[in-house]
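Might I ask for a little of your time on a matter of protein folding? The record follows directly beneath this note:
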Amino acid sequence: MCRHLAYVGPEEPLGRLLVAPPHGLYRQSWAPRHQRYGTVNADGFGVGWYAAGDPVPA
């Protein structure tokens, strides 16, 4: 299953967006047994962003 998070707004620490929520993307990537039918999740997660003034993603 694909998971995406898009955020547009003032700067926020990544942990507040990915780790802090009870069902955040970080937890979903390593705790699939908390899902109704999940037993293994080999997908993980990654992070990308655009730096101010630079059109190339970091």
